[in-house]
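Data deposition worksheet. Section B asks for the primary sequence of the deposited chain exactly as it was used as input, without tags or linkers unless they were present during the calculation. Section C holds the resulting structure in token form. Section D is free text for depositor observations; keep each observation to a single sentence. Incomplete worksheets are returned to the depositor.
Section A, Depositor: J.P.
Section B:
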Amino acid sequence: KERLPVYIPILAKADPTKFGVSVCTIDGQCVLFGDCKDGFGVQSSMKPLNYAIALEICSFRKVYQHCGIEPSDRPFNEMVLDHK
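Section C:
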């Protein structure tokens, strides 16, 4: 049995039985399936969208120059107040 990730608090509280899909067309039509009205954390689901935006704004070559690099040198889920 898979376990929920505990290192991201909102995901640790998530109900793994929930699932929803919403499809919207560019002319404003929407179709909803499943648990679409329930709130959820977006964490990793934003990565493909951010990647698409980066490709749109920058070139493929420019984006791939930065793949695999962690710019902050800190864990992705670390919360830090930097007073510099």
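Section D:
The chain has a mean pLDDT of 82.
The CA atoms of residues 5 and 43 lie 12 Å apart.
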